[in-house]
Amino acid sequence: MKLKHISLSVMTIGGALGVCGAPAALASGYNFGSQSVSAQGTAHANAAEAADASTLYYNPAGMTFLDGDQITVGSTLVIPSSSFTNNGSTTVVGTTTSGGNGGSFAPSAVVAPNLYYSHQIDDKIHVGLGIFVPYGAKLNYGTTWAGRYALESVNLQTINFNPSISYKLDEHHSFGFGVSAQYMKADLTKAVDVKSGLILAGSGLASFITGDGQVDMSASGWGFGYNLGYMYSLDEHTRFGLSYRSKVIQRLDGNATWDYSNVSSSAAVVAGVKAAATHKTSNASLTVETPESASASFYHDLNSKWAVMADVTWTGHSDMNTIDVRFPGTSEGDMTVDQKWKNTFMFALGANYKYNDKLLLRSGVAYEQSPVPSDSLRHPALPDSDRYWLSFGANYKFTRQSSIDVAYSYVFFKNATVNYSDNCTPVSSNCTGNGETTRGSYKTHLQLVGLAYNYRF
Q1: Pick the CATH number of 9-456 from 1.20.1560.10, 2.60.40.10, 2.30.110.10, 2.40.160.60
Q2: Residue ranges of the domains in the chain?
Q3: What gap in Å lies between CA 57 and CA 245, rounded to an integer?
Q4: Is 348:365 a contact under the CB 8 Å cutoff?
Q5: Which of 33, 22, 332, 341 has its CA nearest to residue 188?
Q6: 344-385 pLDDT, tens per residue?
Q7: What DSSP string describes 430-444?
Q8: What is the pTM (predicted TM-score) of this model?
């Protein structure tokens, strides 16, 4: 009889630092979405502006517009607000899942730092390094919410090291190239529906079951990718940019530990449950593909005071078809989560206003699509939906060498309905899962506060 049940959809959603519709992540799918405070101030419309060293993330060719050595150190504070309302979640045997709505499952705040450095070798060549958080999530629904068989908690952390180089061919054409070394670590927990598994197996122990089992998972791994950029300058006031960031394929390896000590107060029943379980601890692994993306951007100085900009970004989420979690060295079948994601677009418009020689004001709006195609494919780990950005920002120069950027964004998510079913029967020999259906709705919005320090020398 199979009592090992685990859902690692969260692993890919964070990168399975991802789970975007969940409050800790911001951009479509599971991309954190805020890699630069100056970019955040325009709702990420300023890829062609090349405002500071963070341009190497959005378009590495933009480094050719930076003089000397420049460093940007920033951080974004994310303040989420998200609630879930249960609407008839059930177990695999059709009984109503007891429990509440998950309470305050989002953290009160999370912080994502970044660091960028650009160095001018000569009039044509620049090199740089970016260190940033591409994916991230931290959710804790607790052990008694109605969707606990799908997920109880997740904590995903990712860091990306992105060295880059740019080359200025002439007054009009610039090119950029970068490589990424990306590390991911994920920890998650979920409940094990022991009672339903025993019912399906025809065991007499089912009538004695009064609690859930528990599974804890931890896995990590490295992946590698690259990014490309091109910038065309029509003149000193107008430029266009194209950029591409590749997918990163990562193998995450770790361990899964099962605990049945809370299943029942009867020692005899607990002993029987433990004996029925084929494994208590095992290895676990899965392959993660973070999506590729391509962007087209525009920047233009209207006059000495005003500048306008725009960006369109396509993200190739469709490679996220199914997530297959393997348990090497055991007889357990794979855990499969259906995603069938669709490709998405983000559209952003922004403007700068030069108040005086020291103060530059920014603003922007954006619309971003969700990759989740339907309610039946929206997992509790990623209750993602389309969203709208409204951003404001400013750059203040203390001296010719030093300045700060500040930004504030409000991100509103469309209400999201979840009707996700795990199609694995707990006693099946060829898959691992609880077989639950999680039904409910989410309401989410985010506030972002960014602060960065820039220095040139």
Answers
A1: 2.40.160.60
A2: 9-456
A3: 9
A4: yes
A5: 22
A6: 999 999 999 999 999 999 999 999 999 999 998 888 877 889
A7: SB-----EEEEEEEE
A8: 0.88
